[in-house]
Amino acid sequence: MGAQWGDEGKGKVTDLLAEQADLVIRFQGGNNAGHTIVRDGEEWKFHLIPSGILYPGLTCAIGNGVALDPRVLLEEIENLKRRGIDVSGLKISANAHLIMPYHVLLDSAGEARLGKLRIGTTKRGIGPCYADKAARLGIRVQDLLDPSILRKKIMGAMEPKRHVLRAHAKDPVLDLHAMTEEYVTFGHRLEPHISDTAMLCHETLEGGGTVVFEGAQGTLLDIDHGTYPFVTSSNCVAGNAAAGSGVGPDLLHYILGITKAYTTRVGGGPFPSELPIDVPGSIGHHLSTVGQERGTVTGRARRCGWLDAALLKRSIVINGISGLCITKLDVLDGLAEIEVCVGYELRGERIDILPLDADDIVACMPIYETFPGWQESTFGATRWDALPQNARRYLERVENLIGAPIDMVSTGPDREHTILLRHPYQPHAESRSARRQMALSL
Fold first, then answer.
1. E-assigned strands of 53-162?
2. I need a labelling partner for 200 at 20 to 30 A (CA). Which of 83, 87, 270, 389 fits?
3. pLDDT for residue 37
4. How many angstroms separate the Cα of 384 from the Cα of each of 16, 412, 421?
5. Each residue's pLDDT tens digit, 316-341
6. End-to-end alpha-carbon separation of the chain, Å?
7. C-beta neighbour count of 435 within 10 angstroms
C-alpha cells in the first residue's frame, strides 16, 4: 500500500511480488488510480486490473471494495488481449459497485461548484459511486446479470438526483432504456469473469497459497486518515485489504508500505515539504523532470518535495507497516545535498509526526535535516553494496527516523531494478514492535 499520497510505484512492486503469488487482488479505489509497469523495456499501464495479470496462469481479482467502471475495464481487457496477454485468470467480485454515467456527471459538476476549493478529483465518478454505496443506492456487478433488477435499481438511484442532474436532462447517456441496454451488454461480456472473490481468497489461503493484496492511492488520501477533505473516497490503508477483499484481518501477515525517496502529490491539499517545480535548475524542477512526475490517469504534473519522515511515521502507525520499499532512489542522483523533513514547527511548538487536521498541516513549517548527496549513479543497482556510501547513509538515517525497516529499494522503472534486503515472503524473526524499537535506538 502507498505510504504517502499515492503514485509511489506500487504497480512495479506488485508485479515483482506477483511472480511468487497464487492470487493478486485489488481491494479499493477505481480507475482514478493508475499503475505503470516497465518489464523488459516495455511499458504497461493499468487502472483496474491487478498488476500481476502479466504472469500467465496467475489468478488476478478485483475485490468487492473497488468502484468499477465496466467500460474502462473492458477497454483494459481488450488492450491486453491485443498485446497477447491471457486474461482468463481475471476474476471480478459480484459485490463490487459500478460507476454509472450519472456518477461521472455528478463528479464533474461537484468539482465545478467548488471552484477554487475543489478537491482535485480525477472526475471519473468514484466519489459519487461510493456515496451511492453508503446511501444504499448502489448498483453492483451482479446486477448486470438481471436486466429487470438492473433497470429498477437505475431508476431508484437516479430519482433523488433528478434536481442536481436537471442541466443534463437531455444528455443521451442518462436515457434509462439506453443505459440499461448498454450495461446489460457489459454484463454479458464480463460474465465469464464474475466470481465470489472472497471465497477465492479464502480457498487460496486455506490451501497454503500466497495472496498479494494490491492497494491504490496512498495513506494520506484515505477518507478517514488522510488530509481530509483533500482525500479520495475510499479507505486506502492496509486494514481495508480485509474488508475490501472479504478475508479476516488475521490473514494479513505482512504490510509493505511503498514510498518514494522524495514526496509527490496530485491535486489540492496541504503538502508541508513541497518545492516549486516550475523554476529550471531548482530541486523541485529536478524531481519533477528526472522523476517524470505526471499522473498515470490524468497526465497532470505532480507536486514535488523532499521526503517527509514525519508523514511516514503517521503512515507506519495507521497501517502497522512491516517493512518499506523506497522507490525512485535514482532520481536523487547528482544532487549536492538532500534534505528530509524530520518534523514541523506548529504555532511555536515542535512536533515530529504529521498532525491530523488539514488546517494544522497547512500551518506546519517543515524542519529539515540535511545530508550530503552523491554524484555516482544508482540507476539499476540490484545490491546494497553497489550503492554509493552517501546513498546508503541516507537510507539508514531514514530508517532510523521513521522507526520501520527498509526491506526493498527500487533504483529504476524495470522490475529488475530492485534491491531486496529482505523478501516480504520471508517472515521477520523479530516482532514488528521489537523491530521498531531497534530502529529507534540506532
1. 59-62, 67-68, 90-93, 97-98
2. 83
3. 81
4. 18, 14, 8
5. 999 999 999 999 999 999 999 999 99
6. 26
7. 17
Q: Which residue has the cell 504490510?
A: 255
The residue ranges of every structural domain in the chain are 97-192, 255-442
Whole-angstrom distance, CA of residue 342 vs CA of residue 396: 14
Residue 102, helix vs strand vs coil: helix
Contact 371, 340 (CB under 8 A): yes
255-442 is classed in which CATH architecture? Alpha-Beta Complex (3.90)
Distance between CA 339 and CA 47 in Å, rounded?
A: 33
SS3 category, 267? coil
Q: What's the mean per-residue pLDDT of the chain?
A: 91
| Confidence band for 115, pLDDT divided at 50, 70 and 90 | low
35 a catalytic residue:
yes
Domains 97-192 and 255-442 fall in the same CATH topology: no
Residue 276 one-letter amino acid: P
Catalytic residue among 15, 35, 69, 132, which?
35
Which of these, 309, 327, 332, 333, lies nearest to 404 by C-alpha position?
Answer: 309
pTM, rounded to two decimals: 0.90
Question: In Å, how far are 37, 41, 384, 392, 411 from 381, measured between CA atoms?
Answer: 18, 16, 8, 12, 6
Burial code (b: 16+ CB inside 10 Å, e: under 16) for 265-278 equals bbbbbbbbbbbebe
The CATH number of the domain covering residues in 97-192: 1.10.300.10
E strand segments, 347-416: 349-351, 365-372, 406-410
- Between the CA of residue 134 and those of 66, 69, 387, 423, what are the distances in Å? 13, 18, 49, 38
Q: Which of 7, 69, 143, 330 is catalytic?
A: 7
Locate 319 and state its grid cell.
Answer: 497501517
Residue 207, burial from CB neighbour count under 10 angstroms (0-12, 13-18, 19+): exposed
Nearest to 394 by CA among 329, 301, 327, 311: 329
20: its cell numbers: 511468487
d(CA 426, CA 152): 50
- Extended beta strands in 158-224, E state: 194-195, 211-214
Nearest residue to 184 (alpha-carbon basis) of 152, 153, 147: 147
- Cβ burial, residue 177 (10 Å; 0-12/13-18/19+): exposed
